[in-house]
Amino acid sequence: MRFPFADISLWRKRSKAGIGSTLAGVIALLFQAYRGFPLHDTLDYTYLIVSFLPILIGVLQYINNVAMLRRDYIIMDEDEISIYRAFFLPRKKIPLENIERYIPVSTLIILRLKDGREHQFNTDWLSKESIREIRVFLSEVTEKKRHYG
């Protein structure tokens, strides 16, 4: 079962922040080019390169947040749960046999594992139907563990 990120305003706000970062970088870049050239007849390339950082970060932030609606946040199959972590990080994969129990807390679902570790995911990023299906699935998994060891 695949559960995509919900269509919430958070992703639009974050993508707008990416556009803002990009614009700030462009303004800084233009300022450096305008200010540096008449004074020294050369450009200070260090400032220009540093000015590209907000542009690069802003573009990546925009692309990542626009693409969130096409990504699956949670993937559950017969053997494991896979949780999306970040643009540059691999998914967190948790074998079902390692899950001891799950705990719904406010806007989180915490998975407690047999070795005492915990992993969590944010329910605000999922639709209500997805949350309901995930809870049913996790209930079935943890009930099987209690009855069959």
In short:
This protein is α+β, with helices and mostly antiparallel strands. Helix content is 51%, strand content 23%. It folds into two domains: 6-69; 72-148, PH-domain like (Roll).
Largest sheet: 4 strands, antiparallel
Tell me the Rg in angstroms. Answer: 22 Å
Quote the CATH topology of the largest domain. Answer: PH-domain like
- By DSSP (H or I, 4+ residues per run), the number of helices equals 3
Protein structure class? alpha+beta
Number of strands: 7
Protein name: DUF304 domain-containing protein
Keywords: Membrane, Transmembrane, Transmembrane helix
Organism: Oceanobacillus kapialis
Transmembrane segments: 45-63
Tags for this model:
149 residues, 3 helices, membrane, transmembrane, 7 strands, DUF304 domain-containing protein, 4-stranded antiparallel beta sheet, elongated, 2 domains, 3-stranded antiparallel beta sheet, transmembrane helix
Describe the protein.
The protein has about 150 residues and is of the alpha+beta class. The chain folds into 2 domains: about 5-70; about 70-149, Pleckstrin-homology domain (PH domain)/Phosphotyrosine-binding domain (PTB) (PH-domain like, Roll), CATH 2.30.29. Helices cover about 50% and strands about 25% of the residues. It is built from 3 helices and 7 strands. The strands form 2 sheets. It has a 4-stranded antiparallel beta sheet with strand order 1-2-3-4, with no helix packed on it. It has a 3-stranded antiparallel beta sheet with strand order 5-6-7, covered by helices on one side. Strand 2 (about 70-75) and strand 3 form a beta hairpin. Helix 1 (about 10-40) packs antiparallel against helix 2. The mean pLDDT is about 85.
